[in-house]
Design goal:
3 helices, single chain, disordered C terminus, 40% helix, 0% strand, globular, mainly alpha
Length: 92
């Protein structure tokens, strides 16, 4: 499981009040009853909390949480710590 998945779950349950029992890898934003504005806000919160630089605003409502997790992992280079933040590789 990706380190970003708990951060996604946290944002969905705490910010958007999605019941944890409804959050599954194959859930979509649409199936979680997230409208376009909520998806945009979710993207901003995830980008800020992970330090990612990807184009999170382009997350489609029909993407599954597995798809979204993969997208975020790729955007942060797979370097997400247990607290959900992207870790930076040392520069030499």
């Amino acid at each position: 499981m990706s380190a970003i998945h708990p951060k996604i779950t946290e944002v969905l349950t705490h910010t958007f009040k999605v019941p944890a029992a409804e959050i599954h890898p194959d859930s979509t934003m649409d199936s979680l009853e997230m409208d376009s504005l909520a998806v945009a806000e979710f993207a901003v919160l995830i980008r800020e909390s992970t330090g990612g630089r990807g184009d999170f605003d382009r997350l489609p409502k029909e993407a599954t949480l597995t798809d979204i997790t993969r997208f975020i992992d790729a955007a942060v280079g797979g370097r997400v710590s247990a607290d959900g933040r992207a870790s930076m590789s040392p520069t030499r």
